[in-house]
Amino acid sequence: MDYSQNQSQSHGHIVMLPFMAHGHLIPFLALARRIRHLTPFVVTLATTPLNLRYLRSTMSPDNDDSRIHLYELPFCSSDHGLPPDTENTENLPPDRIPALCHSSVSLTAPVERLISDITSKDGRPPLCVISDVFFGWSVDAVRRLGTKSITFTTGGAYGTLAYNSLWLHLPHRSTDVEEFSVPGFPERCRFHRSQLHRFIREADPTDEWSKFFQVQLKLSLASDGWFCNSVEEIEPLGFDLLRKYLKLPVWAIGPLVPSHMLQNSSPVSPKSRINSLQKHTGKVPGVSLEKCLDFLNSHRPNSVLYISFGSQNTISPSRMMQLAIGLESSGKPFIWVIRPPLGFNIKGEFRSEWLPPGFKDRVTRSKQGLLVWNWAPQLDILSHDSTGAFLSHCGWNSVMESLSQGVPILGWPMAAEQAYNAKMMVEEMGLCVELTRGVESQIDAEEVKRMIELVMEEEGKGGEMRKRANAVMGQMREAVKEGGDDEKGSSVKAMDEFVRTILGDSMNGSSSSP
Ligand code: UDP
Fold first, then answer.
1. Quick one: pLDDT at residue 281?
2. What residue ranges are annotated as transmembrane (predicted)?
3. Which of 224, 371, 346 lies closest to 295 in space, CA to CA?
């Protein structure tokens, strides 16, 4: 679609630049929708051809989405030493991801062209460019062209601060101790070496990961303000610390989950839920929604454990085996999204040898478990009354989706800022316990059974976690309330503040508490 369409009614133009990974594209599109819904501005999402095709597949032609413009940034993966047609972290082995990260810098010239074209067609530059935190290269480029640069981290405040501070300062390198302090955090929030992914644990400023993150994150610190996909009231410590660290406005505009998930009773029919689900992720689930709902309907409220490790992660064969044994012996109902374990072709077929002999038949026959191949209708599972806890890798989108439904978390963080999200949910929010962390750690079936029993308890620790998760769900629903000034929730007010900032009357560098 031509981005200049509708410009005559335009009150201004906002350009958005997501990083090329599903965990970034999905919240960027959700933010674009939120901006379109709450403001009068034209929004253009710009990304590479295949990512654009993916975004288009998740959008509906018949609602607000038709008012979000898509713009293609030319990109040829083989120019950057990447396999043909590779424009996304999906299906890329971890050691090739830095090449994709570095290749994003080549988008500078096409982004400059886009901004210049908008400027000449609209007669003025865009109001701002909202760039992924990994695209620090865009900050100077868009400023030179007369517009403001806003950073979107796609994460929460606490996790974002931890991720940035750890990469920028590598504090674990100047000490031999297991637990160390991290700039920006108080002493009581010391971090543990095991919370660092191998790439950052072994970083030595000259490796490819450091060369990308240290440069790009630092450049993003110079933007005019940051968006977080979170809610002011659910992580007050995180927002306080992040604002002190950045010394910039930080707007909490989350949770960026589909709006029907934030209503008290979902009036959405199963059929349109399938559509909304597939539109949300652009993926076809490995099980029909009906089958999932039948399974959930056959169990009591809060009795089912949902297990998924996000869009990219998987576990090792030995841990998969221990997880299966522990699950079965706990006797608790579960839905488990299974994909090939580490060391196997991620696009390969299911192999029964990954699980204990007869496991699949037994749990299916007894209705204890539903095994879902590769991809599940996560939003529908989490929003069902029977789902009582989520064994999750603690990716931030999954966290927001789970807490928006009052579902507590059994954490198994693996990469990125997932361990920092888990740390906050354990220590500050009290609605998560960690089963284990990392892809290298050991777990045994006995411990799996014990932890599953703990989180599924109606009373005790599990019950307490569920109460806390329910309280957070309430805060999230309040945060997105629209209406007059007295009724507006904090996330809606934060969007108003962002608007005032880009329109130029409140750029004072202060914090943006609601
Ligand atoms: N997701 C899903 N079905 C699955 C696995 C993941 O719908 O079987 C969605 C999930 O709802 C979330 C996203 O994929 O919106 C995963 O994002 P997250 O930040 O949790 O993890 P990442 O994939 O970035 O590690």
1. 62
2. 12-32
3. 371
Largest CA-CA distance found in the chain, in angstroms, rounded: 68
Residues 6+ apart with CB under 8 A from 296: 304, 335, 381, 384, 385, 386, 387
Q: How many CA atoms lie within 13 A of 155 on its CB side?
A: 25
In angstroms, rounded to a whole number, what is the distance separating the alpha carbons of residues 199 and 220? 21
pLDDT recorded at residue 8: 40
Would you say 14 and 130 are in contact if contact means Cβ atoms under 8 Å apart?
A: yes
Domain annotation for the chain: domains and CATH numbers: 3-157+223-254+482-502 (3.40.50.2000), 262-476 (3.40.50.2000)
Task: Among 311, 312, 337, 387, name the best residue to mutate to test ligand 1's pocket (greatest count of ligand atoms within 8 A of Cβ).
Answer: 311
pLDDT value at position 409? Answer: 98
- Sign of the Cα torsion 490, 491, 496, 498 reads positive
**Do the Cβ atoms of 384 and 406 come closer than 8 Å?**
no
Residue 506 pLDDT: 39
Residue 124 per-residue DSSP state: S
The model's pTM: 0.93
The alpha carbon of residue 63 and the mean position of all alpha carbons in its chain are separated, in whole angstroms, by: 24
What is d(CA 238, CA 229) in angstroms, rounded to the nearest whole number? 12
Report the candidate in 422, 391, 435, 401 with the shortest Cα–Cα distance to residue 162. Answer: 422
The C-alpha atoms of residue 394 and residue 400 are separated, in whole angstroms, by 9
User: Which tens digits make up the pLDDT trace of 134-156?
Assistant: 999 999 999 999 999 999 999 99
**Which residue puts its alpha carbon closest to atom 15 of ligand 1?**
397
Q: Whose CA is nearest to atom 7 of ligand 1?
A: 378
Q: Is the beta carbon of 375 within 6 A of some atom in ligand 1?
A: yes
DSSP single-letter state for residue 127: S
Ligand 1, residue 398: give the atom nearest the CA: 20
Residues 6+ apart with CB under 8 A from 361: none
Tally of CB atoms within 10 A around 24: 24
- Whether 308 lines ligand 1, by a CB cut-off of 6 Å, is yes
Ligand 1 site-directed mutation target among 132, 336, 398, 418, most atoms within 8 Å of CB? 398
What is residue 67's predicted lDDT score, i.e. its pLDDT?
83
Residue type, 137: W
The low-confidence residues of the chain, meaning pLDDT below 50, are 1-9, 266-272, 274-275, 505-514
Looking at residue 280, its pLDDT comes to 59
Can you tell me which atom of ligand 1 is nearest the CA of 337?
Answer: 8
175 contacts: CB under 8 Å, gap ≥ 6: none
